[in-house]
Design brief:
Elements (H helix, E strand, L loop, with lengths): L1 H9 L2 H21 L1 H6 L17 H46 L6 H12 L2
Length: 123
């Protein structure tokens, strides 16, 4: 009776809880890297204190425009690499989670396999 309850839990609720854990991990990775926010703000100025309008002559206006342009370029590069890094970590999580979910049904069979192998190797 207990074995049947264990098998029912392992291949039912237990497996679903493992799937939920993998999904939670993927959401945490996505939240940690803030992928959606990085994509939305890809070309925003990078850590620029003043991105507003500047008053003054042409040389001051041009320098402010150039500063904003460089800041946007640096921001795009930094955010792009963060997006790539976040996507790589997310894909690694998908792969590891997929392997874990495929391996989960086989875990209860490992002690039996160990016994069989230990008996076969001791001959």
């Amino acid at each position: 009776m207990h074995v049947l309850a264990f098998v029912r839990w392992w291949y039912g609720v237990g497996w679903m809880s493992q799937l939920s854990a993998v999904q939670l991990h993927l959401r945490k990775v996505s939240d940690y890297f803030s992928l959606s926010l990085l994509v939305r703000n890809l070309f925003q100025p990078f850590r620029q204190i003043s991105a507003g309008s500047v008053r003054g002559g042409f040389d001051i206006q041009f320098r402010a425009w150039l500063d904003r342009l460089i800041s946007r370029f640096v921001g795009a590069i930094v955010r792009f690499f963060m997006i790539v890094t976040g996507c790589v970590w997310w894909l690694l999580g998908v792969l590891a989670g997929g392997v874990w979910l495929l391996f989960w049904p086989l875990l209860p069979l490992l002690p039996v396999l160990g016994l069989v192998l230990s008996k076969g190797l001791s001959l």
